[in-house]
């Protein structure tokens, strides 16, 4: 698959970043007691583990070699005690550390989702939903592991290393130097690994996000995939993404394997050095046999944490990229809240010289002047892509105009609380969306009415048959309203818009998908809904707006003509031409 065919997730993540890490520690603060407990148990369990080879040395040097069996049972008992102690302490440590990790995950998921819900719609234009799902699932998991399996464990391993080197030096400095002559080589290998692993982990995260994004998009459009026989092509594209993901994972595994075998080799070389120098030392009487055995054991235990540290390093790298992505999300500025709306608005709207572009480059609306007086019905017509829906979105404050201003009952929309604006302006969308859940939760999400009032409104809006078929207010609507026809969905969305008793109602192609019979029904309900409030009707079919008080004809983002139906026909301009075209087509065809 070509790069760019499906937007690649930005490859983020610097090397281990302390500012990110400090911020991560802030997530641990609420659980500091458990975290401190986990950190405290770590050195204790490590000490219990590392004292074991020393006990073996004593057993050999003081009891077995000199054939002094008295007291050996105490050494064995102590040995067993440290083994059980290590298990118990290790269990307690893992329990506390993993608990902290799980709580951090829950917090991040909740905070991330809560931020997503408050982000402006323009954010979702830039970020495919599949990628956002990856952030709240995969990235959160990674960060959660950072404490349990990452930080706490790394702290333990580092403690082990220092403890081992200290003990070895205390037992025999010369043998310690022999064991660690390969340290420069070890550092070189670790540096190489660290550099390569960082790039590999970033790529893995980025490619898994691509894969998830693609999956989410294709599953959402499964009807179109099947309709256009795209199963094979989709499979191939998925296969390509999957292959890219596999390759990057493989690269990461390859580096992991490299480090594992390099450390194994170094460990074996160090043991060989100890056998050679230590063996001659035992024969010359400068070292004891017990020290030799303990050294071999300690060298193995020195390289084991390094292997673990390298695994933790991969984890830290991938968590770093995940942390960066999650913090980016948490730092996204939420939609501005603005001032509360003064009460008693009558539903007057005014657009003054409004211009707008989605991407900051291509103008979609240019210097729009338009007003709706209280109780008036204004219509927007124009060809596909001329910017009608965009005007509706600006009215609902989903986007802010690039220049110019919009006044709602005299107040600049830019300074008003969007939630309250959306309560005052009802919206019946072109492609209405219903959530999986009860009829009640869908129709009256803000709980404006009790059941009786709601049912009255449903009846008045002519959709009581639909609601009864679904099983009443507690009846179930499936995901995206797929157990309903387009007309039924449109009718329910009309009720949903009316429930909040808006001063202004916007119909965006509300009847475009309906058959003649249902269209007449919805149209009648729309006429009913317009009574006593201002309305903006966005439509292709001129017949459906001919009775509007004022009609604006939009062309390439500019208002080309304005007036009543009769005035526009008399002007004999674009509107009149479109009207004749639609009339020719029996008034039933779209533009
Ligand atoms: N989210 C978006 N991001 C970028 N461009 C967009 C977005 N939504 C719409 N556009 C572009 O803005 C222009 C106006 O779109 P808009 O939906 O307002 O047209 P419309 O007049 O309502 O069309 P239609 O009658 O087909 O619904 C189009 O060129 C469209 O491609």
From TrEMBL:
Main location, first listed in the record:
membrane
* Gene Ontology CC annotation, any one: plasma membrane
Judging by the UniProt lineage, the source's domain of life is Bacteria
Provide any one GO MF term from the record.
ATP hydrolysis activity
Which regions span the lipid bilayer? 71-96, 146-169, 175-193, 282-299
Where does this polypeptide localize? Cell membrane
- ABC transmembrane type-1 domain segment(s): 44-318
Per UniProt, which keywords does this protein have?
ATP-binding, Cell membrane, Membrane, Nucleotide-binding, Transmembrane, Transmembrane helix, Transport
Instruction: Write one Pfam family the protein is assigned to.
Output: ABC_membrane
Q: Which PROSITE patterns does its entry note?
A: ABC_TM1F (PS50929), ABC_TRANSPORTER_1 (PS00211), ABC_TRANSPORTER_2 (PS50893)
InterPro entries in the cross-refs: AAA+_ATPase (IPR003593), ABC1_TM_dom (IPR011527), ABC1_TM_sf (IPR036640), ABC_transporter-like_ATP-bd (IPR003439), ABC_transporter-like_CS (IPR017871), P-loop_NTPase (IPR027417), Type_1_exporter (IPR039421)
Q: How does it sit in the membrane?
A: Multi-pass membrane protein
Domain named ABC transporter: residues: 349-581
Please state what the protein is called: ABC transporter ATP-binding protein
Task: Supply the source organism for this entry.
Answer: Syntrophotalea acetylenivorans
